[in-house]
Design a protein that fits this description.
The protein is of the alpha/beta class. It has helices spanning 45-49, 68-82, 93-98, 117-126, 149-152, 169-179, 182-195, 199-211, 218-232; strands spanning 2-6, 14-21, 27-29, 86-90, 109-114, 131-134, 154-158, 162-166.
């Protein structure tokens, strides 16, 4: 039995291979031979992915690392251009910079926004600034944020049309433990040490987060992450 495949375009060429029936009723074929491996006759995987009307996308240029000051300047420009009032809570690496970790680099904005998320995201996009924006940061994880995290947030900028806030240190720690990657744990450790957050405060906030969360096996993993993190912290000096 003979099968064939026809590759379109200027590289079209008919290839043929033999299909054999095995004793167990399945079929085998010598098409598994490296018919994509020989550049002389065959298409590479990259060529196959770009056949037809789909052209290769240009590789995006690397963006400069961001600072909180740069983002605040852009937010001021946004309020000037639109007349809108912006209330934004920084929750990612930009917040960490504001806490004093100047070596923490980032190329995007992670934030909770009161107001039009779509309009602000569009403004950032026009300035080639990647952004993950939400009106409900707690919803980014199965594990909820501790209730009251918005009220505990502190002002970094408080002007007539612009308010930029930071999570309270213990809430920032919980936000990082919700994800629990190595980088997140490093970030949380810096903030705990920088602000003298005790393991008791962290465990209390973590339990408040669990209580506010839907029942899910992810809560077990979160509790384990919190426990291991607290064990890793040095005692807080009085």
């Amino acid at each position: 039995m003979i099968g064939s495949i026809l590759l379109p375009g200027s590289l079209s060429q008919r290839f043929r291979w033999r299909i054999e029936q095995r004793a167990d009723g399945t079929h085998g074929t010598d098409a598994s031979l490296p018919f994509l491996a020989t550049e002389r006759h065959f298409l590479s995987i990259r060529d196959l992915l770009t056949i037809g009307t789909i052209a290769p996308l240009p590789r995006p240029s690397l963006l400069s690392t961001l600072t909180a000051d740069h983002v605040i300047a852009l937010l001021k420009e946004y309020t000037r251009q639109t007349g809108a009032t912006v209330d934004i809570l920084l929750v990612g690496a930009l917040a960490l910079q504001a806490y004093g970790y100047q070596d923490r680099l980032t190329r995007d904005v992670d934030a909770e926004v009161i107001g039009s998320v779509e309009a602000l995201a569009g403004f950032f996009s026009r300035h080639q600034l990647p952004a993950d924006l939400t009106e409900n940061f707690s919803g980014w994880s199965i594990v909820a944020m501790p209730p009251g995290y918005r009220e505990r947030a502190t002002d970094l900028v408080h002007q007539a049309q612009l308010r930029v806030k930071l999570l309270a240190p213990v809430d920032f720690i919980i936000s990082k433990l919700r994800r629990g990657t190595d980088l997140d744990l490093d970030d949380a450790s810096f903030v705990a040490t920088r602000f003298g957050i005790t393991t008791g405060h962290i465990r209390h906030a973590a339990e408040a987060a669990v209580t506010a969360s839907p029942q899910d096996t992810a809560l077990f993993l979160f509790r384990k992450t919190v426990d291991l993190f607290c064990q890793s912290l040095p005692p807080v000096k009085p």
